[in-house]
Specification:
Elements: H1 6-24, H2 30-49, H3 57-72, E1 91-93, E2 101-104, E3 109-113
Antiparallel strand pairs: 1-2, 2-3
């Protein structure tokens, strides 16, 4: 069996990071995990065309899943920072870049790196 190359490593890492954020928000149901898998398949083709983009995959998969969830589930991930006002989703920044973060544009703060929503100081889980 051949070793996993950098392309597969970046895809596996992206999958793991987005699944961790989904689990932190308790939305990692089977159909949602399928959305992650679909995104990883699409992004595999994208990275094969543009290998330099491998470090951007985690943010792209997070955005893909966020878009897919909006159609079936609703906004995700909801901002844990703003306690009042309309519930709103965090956004990934940079849209195309390394080290993607979940950001609240309303409060103007970085909430957590993609993959770390459940462990961030600002991230609270409803009890």
């Amino acid at each position: 069996m051949e070793s996993i190359g950098p392309l597969e490593q970046s895809l596996h890492a992206a999958r793991a990071r987005v699944l961790a954020d989904l689990a932190a928000g308790e939305v990692a149901a089977a159909d949602v995990v399928s959305m992650v898998e679909d995104s990883v398949v699409q992004r595999r083709w994208w990275v094969e065309q543009w290998p330099e983009g491998a470090e951007f995959v985690a943010g792209l998969v997070a955005q893909d899943v966020q878009d897919a969830l909006l159609e079936t589930y609703g906004r995700w991930p909801l901002c844990p920072v703003c306690g009042s006002g309309d519930p709103h989703a965090l956004e990934v920044e940079p849209e195309l870049g390394p080290d993607p973060y979940w950001v609240c544009h309303k409060a103007g703060v970085k909430v957590a790196p993609v993959g770390s929503l459940g462990t961030s100081a600002g991230g609270t889980s409803p009890s």
